[in-house]
Every structure is written in structure tokens, then in C-alpha cells.
Amino acid sequence: MHPSDRAPVRPPRRPTFEGPLVTYTGSIPAITPDAAVSHTHPGDRLTARQRLVYIVVLGALTALGPFTIDTYLPAFPALQSEFDVSPAVIQLTLTGTMVGFGLGQLIVGPWSDKVGRRLPLMLATSMHIASCIGAALSPDIYWLGAFRVLMGFGAAAGGVVAMAMVRDLFGGRPLVKMLSRLALISGLAPVLAPVIGSQLLRVVDWRGIFWVLAAYGALVIAAVALFIVETLPAVDRRVAGHSTVGQRYRALFSDRVFVGVALIGGMTFTGLFAYLSSSSFLFQEVYGFTAQQFGLLFAVNSVGIIIGVQTSSLLMRRGVGPQWIIATTTIALVCLATTIGVLSVTGAGLWGTIVPLWFFITACGFTFPCIQVLALANHGKEAGTAASVLGALNFGLAGVLSPIVGVLGVGSALPMAGVMATTALISIVLLWFVVRPRTVPALAH
């Protein structure tokens, strides 16, 4: 057993809470000597109802970041018209959010390894709520951009803490199963967020979207306060307190597999985000979609994410190595992105874009849970720091690279396809020369 997987002898129980999800005592079952034979990790002794609580609440945490980033995508044309700026300037507000999100994760992750999961989560999410209110009241594009950076920083805690909590509780194949649930949400949320945003624009203006995000953040804090307890044992907090942030980062960056899969995850997310950041202009201005039709397109694409994540997780639970799934999907991503570019040049029109795009998004769904499993499996002691690096690379690389699409132009699908193909090619190189899939050990049961 990994030292970080040892459960506390008997954590103090908290008062029972009555809530809409479940009546929950607020304690994580301890592993007693008699149960240690059959229960290796603390989460193995959670009841089905308690696991449901964690899936729902941690899923809501995971979705906070993608919703913050993507819900206002359908409002890009309205923002451009109101502030009288270019599409590239509007996309910079998106870039700022993602940079703030990446930096926030680098701070929140190591902090949560030292002081526990709940405190950083509550403080960062409170900052997110305040920033959403500021964005809703912004008088110009400069104030909006500044608040978007702070929103990203505040939303950073959700994904990092949720992933770290799952690693605190589970290992081996159960870890795969739980991470697959979070990967489904983290992969689905960026695609569903514009759908929700497009529907909100039917009843509110773009400022109303930020008021809704503020309310969502408040609900997340309430759910955490009622249903989620500290999952990092006190003994592990003491160990982290004696180690420096630099030591935890060295443990991660000296692991060749972690470095490789983290970069592959960042490249894959950047390819997906090239689509997310350019699609509002491409489909609404080039192909003439309304905001609602644009949202419907995202809803259809979300089915691909669901299929990819769930199939990939099922394959891993049946013994297929996640590295081999990544080996297949990276090749598929290159082929599909190239297909989009070729069909765009040859004038294939709308269907020549949306059909291969759906399969590209599905291949991304196959990849996401594999990245999380390979990255976290051997880093229980620094799970928060590991999750922060994954998130920072995802959103940091996407924030820096995806605006290239706006610079190259959104008059066709070719620039988007070029970024997608490039990131997929880089992923192939990283897999075979850094991760080296034949050297990756099998997952424990």
C-alpha cells in the first residue's frame, strides 16, 4: 500500500446533515485492522449513497471551471458589438480566464496538500463569486478582461480539489472508475457550457450569464459545506507540512510518465479548445447559425464526449492499458484534424466540418480519463500538486496556443484544423519518446 493511501485510525465524526441528496454523517470510514485485508483505500468502505454524494458534489466542482470559461462563448458577437472591438480582442478575455485558471491551480494544488482540501476550495470559490459579480457590472472590455482573469483564478480550486479528493479516497481500478466520472464531467462541461449560454441569451443579455455563474458558485460552496468533509488525513497533512512545494514538484517532474502524459493532456485539451474558442465565430458568422442552433451543435458534440469517456473507462477496467488507448486516439486525432482541413480547402462546406469534428471530439473523450489515471496513480502523497499541474497545463497551454486560431482568421475551418493537427502530432511524439508506453506498468487492482 502506498503511504498516502493509509486511512486515519478514526477521524472525528461531524454532525448529521439533512439535505436533498442524502442524509450523510460527514465522516469518511476508517480502515480498521480487521477490514484492512479487504479494504485497501478509505473510499472502498463508502456506501453507495455516500459515493453518489461525492460524485455529484465533486462533479459540480469539476464543472465550475469549464462553465466559467465557456458559458459566455455564444455571447462573443454581442460583446464585440457592444464594446466595438475585434474578435481577437474578445478572444483575449477568454485567454485571460484560462491563464488565471492555470496559475490558480498551481497555487491551490500545493496549498491543499499542506493545509487540507476544504479551506483552499472555499476561499478560492468565494473569490470566483465576487469576480463574476464584477464581470457582470463591467463598464468596458478592460474591466471585463481583468475580472475574467480573477474568475479563472477563483474557479481553479474546483477541478484540482475534486481530483485530489478522489485520489485521497481511492486507488487501483476503483480510482479508474471514479476518475472516469470526473473525466466525463470535465470533458462534457466545456461542450455543454455554450449550450447553456446560448439558451440563457434567450432570456438575459451577456451580463446575465455572469450573474448565473455567481449563483452557481454560491451553490457549490453550500454543497461543499453540507456534504463534503476533509479527505486528506491529518498524518498526510503533517507529512506535507514537512516537505516543501519544491520537493513535491520534484517528485512529479522526475517521473517521466507523469511529465509525458501531463503534456499530452495539455496538447489534447488545446486541440479541443481550438474548436471551442473559434466555433462561435465560425458557425455563427461563416455558416449562419443562430445562438440556439450553435448551442444545439454543442449538444450533439457532447454525445461524442460521453461515448469516448465511458468507453475508454470501460476498456481500462477490463485491463486495457491507458497508454495504449492514448496511442490509438492520438493517431485518430491527427487523421481527423487533417480531414477537417482538407475538406475545408476543397469547399466541402458545413458537413465537411461537423462530421469529422464530431469524431475528433469523441477521440478527445477517449483520451481524458487515461491522462488522469496515468498521472495520479503513483502520486497519492502529492495528489493536489499533481492535479494542479494537469489543470495548469491543460488551461495554460490552451490559453496560450488557441488564440492562434483567431490570429490566423476564423473565415474557414482551416486554422482550427491546423492547430488541432499540430497538437495531436506533438502528443504522438511525447507518447513514444517521453512516456514510452511499453515501460508503463499495469494498473493495480
Automatic annotation (TrEMBL):
Family membership noted in the UniProt record: Belongs to the major facilitator superfamily. Bcr/CmlA family.
Domain Major facilitator superfamily (MFS) profile intervals: 51-439
Entry's transmembrane regions: 52-69, 89-107, 119-137, 143-166, 178-197, 209-229, 257-276, 296-315, 324-351, 357-377, 389-410, 416-435
Molecular functions per Gene Ontology: xenobiotic transmembrane transporter activity
Principal location listed in the UniProt entry: membrane
One GO location term (cellular component): plasma membrane
Name recorded for this polypeptide: Multidrug effflux MFS transporter
GO annotation (BP), single: xenobiotic detoxification by transmembrane export across the plasma membrane
Lineage of producing organism: Bacteria, Bacillati, Actinomycetota, Actinomycetes, Micrococcales
Keyword tags: Cell membrane, Membrane, Transmembrane, Transmembrane helix, Transport
